[in-house]
Amino acid sequence: MFFSTNTSCSFCKQPCRSCSGTEANCTSCFKNSSIPNLFVNQCIDTCPKGYVSIDGICEKCKSPCALCEGTPDHCISCDGTGGTKYVHDDQCWADCPPGTRHNAENLTCFACNEGCDLCDIQDINKCLRCTAPALVYDGSCISECPIGWVVNEEGVACRPWQLSDLGIIYFPFLICGAIFTAIILLGQLKKRAYLDKTTNKMDKRSF
Fold first, then answer.
1. Which member of 19, 101, 103, 106 lies 3.0 to 4.6 Å from 12 by CB, making a disulfide possible if both were Cys?
2. What is the DSSP letter of 81?
């Protein structure tokens, strides 16, 4: 290929396939060469970090992508814009979306089991928060708590049943229990007093 001036046309200088302004100012490169990618009007072998080759032209990754692959918005790492740092489904996130958990080592999000919004980073099979209305029980998601367990205050998990779960009903039962116990004791005391009195009378008659 060649470029033109006001008075003549000249061939572009290798490795330019096409050029503009000067013979060495490349506007495209030979795709089958060892330096097929155009970057800042020069032909190079591989686009620099933060760029991706699109039809032989190095294009900058689209923020928040720091590194990209295939297309400028296909992220493989993030630049931190808007607090983004985790990669999931080729996109950058500030926090991993529901159903995934972050991997702090490679700053990616991995999927939890189906029906689990948040799982243990050490054990993907252990669920910490289920998709509503399911409840967490022993690391699994269930529809209702088993016998002896109740829904916790946040309404997201099962916890062991406690006596305090009776609430205000607990106190009348306690009072009634105390009164009933006092009545039993009083009856026992009266019975003992009666028996002692009867015994004393019989002892006096025997003399």
1. 19
2. G
**Cα dihedral: 45, 48, 53, 56 (round 10):** -40
Please give the domain boundaries of the chain with CATH numbers for all domains: 1-48 (no CATH), 123-168 (2.10.220.10)
Q: Which pair of structure tokens corresponds to residue 52?
A: 């991706």
Q: Which amino acid is at 86?
A: Y
Which residues, other chains included, contact 48 with Cβ-Cβ below 8 Å and sequence gap of 6+? 39, 58
Angle ∠(43,47,16) on CA atoms, nearest 5 = 10
Q: What pLDDT, in 10s, does the model give residues 25-60? A: 999 999 999 999 999 999 999 999 999 999 999 999
Check pLDDT > 90 for residue 17: yes
CA distances from 66 to 43, 69, 123, 204 (A): 23, 10, 30, 108
Where do the H-state alpha helices sit in the chain?
A: 170-206
In sequence order, the 6+-apart residues with CB closer than 8 A to the CB of 50 are 60, 61, 66, 67
Does this model's pTM top 0.70? My answer is no
